[in-house]
Amino acid sequence: MARMDHILKSWLDAGIHEVMAWFFDAEVETVTSKNVELQATLEQVITDKIYDVLLKDGRNPLFHVEFQGRTTH
After folding, report:
1. N or C: which end of the chain has fewer CB within 10 A?
2. In this structure, what DSSP letter does residue 31 have?
3. For residues 73 and 70, what is the distance between their CA atoms, to the nearest angstrom?
């Protein structure tokens, strides 16, 4: 899954403004990718992608994407 994971992340990064405009049905001002680690009880979890989105209408949502494959545990 690591190879496919990298391909999907690269694909998403390449078109992130268009994806966010479609998803939120709004014009996008900026999109910033965040490297985020979450604490889940005793183990550290690194998310696939979190984007900080600033829409032209003033909304500022966070958008979380997690890629999973058949062999992902």
Report:
1. C
2. E
3. 8
